[in-house]
């Protein structure tokens, strides 16, 4: 068992390399500070009270919510990520509120119907620069949320925005060029011209714990949902080293455990093993690199919050297993194909008859060129819940897939 004292962190005052709300780089639109909340607490609260946050409850994680009340949605996944992120932040004496805020906002850019919607929208928007859910999340919190009198978006601090955009790593290399053959997403490039997020630097440790918390959360809760759906079995899971090891412990300790508890007991132990591995490995990284400030974290040139090499190998094996046996299961792919049809049909209809979007989305659409219209349609579709997208298809078309 990893103890915080063993790694020299956990408890006490904020670490010197943690983000400090009193030294925040501020907000794009200057505001008077709150007398009762730190800047990062205020960010978290704005995220929780946003429309985009509420919509997560009706957005798919893996299984469509109408199939079973107990499957994870984007909202329940997000809450689980936030819990793990906060626990990791506490272990390293980081700013827990900033870690929680980044975890809570990290999925704001996801479309209806999970990754299916994102993939289809990416194809449909290919000639206009594609679609990237991180870039759309930034657009949501800087433009599309209309709650405040003095600005569009949520006017989050620089630290929350850079964590949202860069929690999976830098977007530019040292020369300022995007990695690979993909250009920088348009929404990120546009915003970065107004408020430089230092896209070639690594993100804060608060953002890094949110990123790895995301991996831990979906790796474990997708096992739970897969067992509930009957797509996974304990016999299959025994083949995966990370899960099989914990399952063997559960079976040895509780040989007569019912199958429901057997699954929960196994997944919670898998989660604990991953969290404790991150705490140990990150502690070792911090000892080795010895950062003295948050700027040292930005400029260190590597991810600090990480799995050990052994756990990294096991985690990748688990992901491969989940893709082969659950995410690519014929039942999932059948419903995914139906969801693709819904997104394609709606995109085509709105492009042909943009007034069908109704409300503020249909304002002045006749004055938009085709590219601007495509961005408007993409934003409208990306913000939909599963339920609303399905209802819109029912309204506009004679036949709509039932997604089963």
UniProtKB/TrEMBL annotation:
Gene3D superfamilies: Hypothetical protein af1432
Positions with biased composition (Basic and acidic residues): 22-36
CDD domains: HDc
Region (Disordered): 13-36
Domain HD stretches: 74-219
SMART domains noted in UniProt: HDc
GO MF terms, alphabetically ordered: dGTPase activity
Keywords from the UniProt entry: Hydrolase
GO annotation (BP), single: dGTP catabolic process
Family: Belongs to the dGTPase family. Type 2 subfamily.
Protein name, as recorded: Deoxyguanosinetriphosphate triphosphohydrolase-like protein
Organism field: Ahrensia marina
